[in-house]
Amino acid sequence: KQEVTQIPAALSVPEGENLVLNCSFTDSAIYNLQWFRQDPGKGLTSLLLIQSSQREQTSGRLNASLDKSSGRSTLYIAASQPGDSATYLCAADSSYKLIFGSGTRLLVRP
Amino acid sequence: DTAVSQTPKYLVTQMGNDKSIKCEQNLGHDTMYWYKQDSKKFLKIMFSYNNKELIINETVPNRFSPKSPDKAHLNLHINSLELGDSAVYFCASSQESLAGGPEETQYFGPGTRLLVL
C-alpha cells in the first residue's frame, strides 16, 4: 500500500531564501509524482509533474526532482517570496489515483 | 473559463439528509475523480471514473454513490449523511496519456465544503 510522507510539516523562512521541501513514498511503482499548491480555503493548483522515467522538472523558480529507487522527491523553491506562502502537497500517481502526503505549510516572511 | 467546476461551494445540512454535489469539467478529459479532505487537511481518493466507468472505489461507504452521466460530469450523491462526512470534497479530472495510463496532470475544482450538523 502506497504511503506518502512530507517533511517538514511547517516551514517559516525570510523572503529571498532558497528552500527545499521533501517528499517520500513507499512504493516505487508510480506513474508520476506531482506537486501541488493549496492556498487557504482554495482548491489545488498543479505546480509540477515528474514522469516516472524523468529525474526532474523545472518551472520558473521551482525545481522538482524524483529518485524512484530511494522513494524520494524534493521541491526546490529559489528566491522565495511572500506570495509563495501556501501549503505544498506532493502526490504519487498509482494508477488512476493520487496518494497525497499531509503537506508542508510554508510561510515566507517579508 | 473555469476548467473544473463544482456546485454548491458550501453545503450545510442535518444528519440523516441526502445531498448531491455536482462536478463538471470542460477540458475534454477522460478521467474524473472525487477526493475528500478531512479536518486535518489530509486528502484521500474516493472514486475514479474513466470514460464514465468506475475504476477505483477506495472502500468508501455505499452511502456515497457517484454518477457519471457523460464524460464531462461526475456527480456525488450522499445518503443518510453522518457527522463524520463533514469535510471538503474535491472533484478533479485528467487526460490519459497517448501511451495509456493516467500519466497526465490532475486539475482540481475549488471544492465543496460540507458541514453536517
Instruction: Kindly estimate the percentage of residues of chain A that lie in beta strands according to DSSP.
Output: over 45%
SSE run of chain B: EEEEEEEEEEE
Mean pLDDT of chain B: 90
Helix content of chain A: under 10%
Sheet bearing the most strands of chain B, described? Answer: 7 strands, mixed
Give the overall form of chain A: globular
Order of helices and strands of chain A: EEEEEEEEEEE
Q: State the helix count of chain A.
A: 0
Structural class of chain A, by secondary structure, is mainly beta
Compute the separation of the termini of chain A in Å.
41 Å
Main interface: chain pair and counts: A-B, 23 and 27 residues
Indicate the radius of gyration of chain B in whole angstroms: 14 Å
Uncertain spans of chain A, ≥5 residues at pLDDT below 50? Answer: none
Q: What would you report as the Rg of chain A, rounded to the nearest angstrom?
A: 13 Å
The oligomeric state of the chains shown is heterodimer
Which shape of chain B, going by the Cα principal axes?
Answer: globular
Stretches with pLDDT under 50, minimum 5 residues of chain B: none
The first-to-last residue Cα distance of chain B is: 34 Å
Helix content of chain B: under 10%
Main β-sheet of chain A, in a few words? 6 strands, mixed
Descriptive notes:
The complex is a heterodimer of chains A (110) and B (117). Chain A contains no helices and 11 strands. Chain A is an all-beta fold and 110 residues long. In chain A, strands 2, 4, 5, 9, 10 and 11 form a 6-stranded mixed β-sheet that branches. A 5-stranded antiparallel β-sheet of chain A has the order 1-3-8-7-6, with no helix packed on it. With 117 residues, chain B is mainly beta. In chain B, strands 2, 4, 5, 6, 9, 10 and 11 form a 7-stranded mixed β-sheet that branches. In chain B, strand 7 and strand 8 form a beta hairpin. Chain B is globular, with a radius of gyration of 14 Å. The mean pLDDT of chain B is 90. At the A-B interface, strand 4, strand 5, strand 9 and strand 10 of A face strand 4, strand 5 and strand 10 of B.
